[in-house]
Amino acid sequence: MNEPLQPLGQRFLFWKQRSVQEQLSHSPEDQYLGALQRIQQQGRWINNDRTGIRCLTVINIDFTYNVGAGVFPLVTTRKLGIKTAIGELLGYLRGYTNAEDFAALGAKSWYMNANETPAWLANPHRKGENDTGPIYGAVARDWPKHDGTTMDLLTKIVDNLTKGVDDRGEILTFWNPGMFELGCLRPCMYEHHFSLLDGVLHMNSTQRSWDGALGGPANMVQCYVLLALMARITGHKPGVVNHRVVNAHLYDAQLELSKEQIERRPFSAPTLEIDERIQTLDDLLTWVTPEHFTVHGYEHHPAIQYPFAI
């Protein structure tokens, strides 16, 4: 059994600007715990209109994950089930617009977004129980064009990268302000920009809003898995994810629990095995489930029951 790593001490100080190489010299969990501490120490209280709950907030935190080196960013200072995070990612790639479809992949939180958000329940575009409207991947997979037709951004990117083409615009974006009123929630992590360099595929991901307690660790996993999958299905080596968070926050009821978490000493990082049969975009869009992803060597502290803000 692996012993916990030594206390992090000053390695938490991640609010200073760091280069990619400096970031990569620190484990993803060091980066994550440093982000929590920065929010706790430097955050300002902001009232959130959507949830009606105040948040302790900072602006701009950068994370870096070395996918090519297999450094899987799964937190160990509390137990985290990755199946939900991966299921949600698969639902995005498939363009799901119904909470029941997400739930079938283990991502059940969309039931709350679809059925318990007052503004969405009163929205005339809502089609009934479990409808989320065109959110996240549904926007990217059916992007409206000026001539009334649509285009599939994901297929365009996969086709280009498979041919070795990087037009400096291989951007999977879910951010279309003209469609916000049609869905139950604006995308939080809204953009993934893929770049080829000497046969290595890198990804820059941008997130407007980051719930450090609940969504944050899942978003880290999703970034890693997305680059790993895109590299494999396009025939390239995976490189590095640069994950930019703009508004990073902890909700009021999460603050004391997060202080408990950063006092815990992290264990060594686990590894992720992705089923070798996954080789094409069609695989991802049809038969792949979270069960095709296996974590090895995951030692962790007990779960923390952070409250969820709708």
Any overview of this molecule?
The protein has eleven helices and ten strands. It is α+β, with helices and mostly antiparallel strands and 310 residues long. It has one domain (9-296): Thymidylate synthase/dCMP hydroxymethylase domain (Thymidylate Synthase, Chain A). The protein has a six-stranded mixed beta sheet with strand order 1-2-8-7-6-5. Helix 2 (28-42) packs across helix 10 (255-262) and helix 3 crosses helix 9. It starts with 19 loop residues before the first helix and ends in a 14-residue tail after the last strand.
Given this structure, which CATH class is correct?
Alpha Beta
* Class by SSE composition: alpha+beta
Describe the largest sheet. 6 strands, mixed
Strand order of the largest sheet: 1-2-8-7-6-5
Classified in CATH, the superfamily is Thymidylate synthase/dCMP hydroxymethylase domain
* Morphology call: globular
Q: Please bin the fraction of helical residues.
A: 25-40%
How many separate domains make up the residues? 1
Number of helices: 11
Which residues form runs of ≥5 with pLDDT under 50?
A: 5-11, 13-17
